[in-house]
Amino acid sequence: MLIPVGVLAAVLIALSIGVVLFSRLPPPAPTYRASPPATSKAASSAGASTKAVTPTAPADPIYADYVAALEREGIVFDKGTGYGSDYKIDTGICESIRGGRVDAFDLAGREGVALATAPAETSKNRLNLQTNGRRITAVIPIICPDQQSVLDEALSGNPRMINLRSGKHFVSQTYDPTSPVVQPGTYSTTKAVSDCYWERLDPQGEILDNNFVSFAREVTVTIAATDGAFNSRNCGDWKRVTG
What we know:
Mean pLDDT: 84
Order of helices and strands: HHHHHHHEEEEEEEEE
Low-confidence stretches: 19-23, 29-57
Largest sheet: 5 strands, mixed
Structural class: alpha+beta
Oligomer: single chain
């Protein structure tokens, strides 16, 4: 089909006008990807430092005095306050004294306080015991001054035994570092007993008196100064009541 020249000319003119108008339209507005809300550098740093902080236990105010006392006396010790340190051991001894589990006789003998003021020992075992006694003598006034009277008794040369442990003991008024001893006196078991056996022996080991207790709330025995030894089995610990 033939298109009249006039029509074709009109179409071409219209297309030209459209192209011109389109080229004059403003460009489309740019689109942007949404960003997360901004966080200030200071706030970010504050958050990081908050996570990094780890709470710590406050320092023991007594420990500094403890260290100073031992260093002043020239006593070698394991520094620190953790498990197994001398400080932990010594604070445990203080608690045992307060609880009645360690008496002046224990301090003087088993803990070496009786040797604290003596000339330096020559044997290794007695020197270690003496060093232990010197340390305890120096630190009790620092870590448990309320138990100073027990320490004074241990240093007096005549401490009184309160606690008697189960087992074999020679009878003696004074501590013997080579073997366990018991002072003469009257002792009672600290709790009910079952199948408890005890015996008093003369210096030659002959039985002076003995008993087997099948079951009882309490057992009491008097150990004489002339006895040679005392032995108990399955009786638990004893506590001095008189003498």
